[in-house]
């Protein structure tokens, strides 16, 4: 767990290049280089731009560490849900659908 947290922080700091926030290009590069295996449309500048806008709670045009953590939390939750669904047996899935 410690290693994962250090990696999340390290990726942000490296991508921000010593700044407190990720600018548009920095965020685009982070998403494209680090998240292409778990997200779709990481090559689409427009899709990543829309994602950045959605994360940008204070509307400053940048992604702060806190805003970045919103993305990390969303992705972790999505992966967890996918794995839970894929681990269900077909009988369990059918029972849940029937209720």
UniProtKB/TrEMBL annotation:
Which GO MF terms does the UniProt record name? calcium ion binding; calcium-dependent protein binding
Its protein name is EF-hand domain-containing protein
Q: Does the keyword Iron-sulfur apply?
A: no
Alphabetical keyword list = Calcium, Metal-binding
Positions of the EF-hand domain? 43-78
SUPFAM superfamilies attached here? EF-hand (SSF47473)
Please give the InterPro entries that the UniProt record associates with this protein. EF-hand-dom_pair (IPR011992), EF_Hand_1_Ca_BS (IPR018247), EF_hand_dom (IPR002048), S100_Ca-bd_sub (IPR013787)
Q: Which GO terms describe its cellular component?
A: extracellular space; perinuclear region of cytoplasm
Note the PANTHER family from the entry. S100 CALCIUM-BINDING PROTEIN, S100 CALCIUM-BINDING PROTEIN U-RELATED
């Amino acid at each position: 767990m410690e290693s994962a947290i250090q990696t999340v922080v390290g990726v942000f700091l490296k991508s921000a290049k010593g700044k407190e926030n990720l600018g548009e290009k920095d965020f685009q590069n982070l998403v494209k280089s680090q998240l292409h295996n778990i997200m779709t449309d990481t090559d689409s500048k427009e899709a990543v731009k829309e994602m950045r806008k959605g994360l940008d709670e204070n509307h400053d045009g940048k992604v702060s560490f806190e805003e970045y953590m919103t993305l990390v939390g969303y992705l972790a939750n999505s992966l967890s849900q996918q794995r839970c669904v894929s681990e269900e047996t077909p009988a369990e899935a059918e029972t849940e659908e029937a209720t």
